[in-house]
Specification:
Strand content: 5-15%
Shape: globular
Number of strands: 3
Number of domains: 1
Distance between the termini: 36 Å
Number of helices: 7
Low-confidence stretches: 133-143
Mean pLDDT: 82
Oligomer: single chain
Order of helices and strands: HHEHHHEEHH
Largest sheet: 3 strands, antiparallel
Helix content: 55-70%
Length: 143
Amino acid sequence: MTAARKAELSGFPKEEEFAWPMLRAVHALGGNAAGRADIEKLAFQYMGLSAQQLAILKPDRRQTQASNRAWWAMTCLSWGNLVRNTEPGRGVWTLMPAARKLFSDHLLMDDIQRAAFVRGAAYGAKRAHEGVEERRIHSRWSA
């Protein structure tokens, strides 16, 4: 990564910081949200991303950095069984029972506590998934 790219991304939210806003957006859109643009728009508003941050492109210039990190966060939320892409061709995302419960049964939790819980659940699932993939690779080559 070049020094200019490092400077451009300094202070840019990390992937795990997108998990809670993305989950909140799906919930705010009725728990069954269609369309990446609507989910992203609401999540990015929750995060308070600036126009400058939203304009940063990935090196291949086909996707913004914010969009890329947001959808990797959704993948991790999916691995954590908090959301499911129920209609992959249409991009319909649905809250799973554990996520619904987070919004209904834990009313005394504030957003900071919920964000920490979601981050832990999503990224615990990511680490578990990466471990499974790593074991698969090792088992294929060890035989």
